[in-house]
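Lab notebook: predicted structure, single chain.

Context: the supervisor wants predicted structures on file for every construct in the current expression panel, including those that have not yet been purified. This is the next one on the list. No modifications to the sequence; it matches the entry in the shared construct table.
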Amino acid sequence: MAMRIAISLQEHMLNLFEGNNLISSYPVGLGKPQTPTPAGEYVIINKQPNPGGPYGAFWMGLSRPHYGIHGTNSPESIGKNESEGCVRMYNRDVLELASKVPVGTPVSITTH
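Prediction complete. Output recorded below exactly as produced.
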């Protein structure tokens, strides 16, 4: 069964599915009103451990340039709209997620 990620902008949640089975759920931080996280259908195109800067323990780039799913050095931002548009996760959660999903995993970001 293929893995897929569904991110709810309204609920600040990232859900990982294998086929139709929910495997894991994680709280996320999202883009602030001036730089919102874009809804749409994307794919993970690269993965990088320890990317440096504000990206925490791991970076997973999306097929939309300059956007990704990553850890954070600001864990207090999880559950809020404070990023430049990326999807922020607790470092422990992004490491767990990265270990489960390969490059090519579909990512759906929805408003509900």
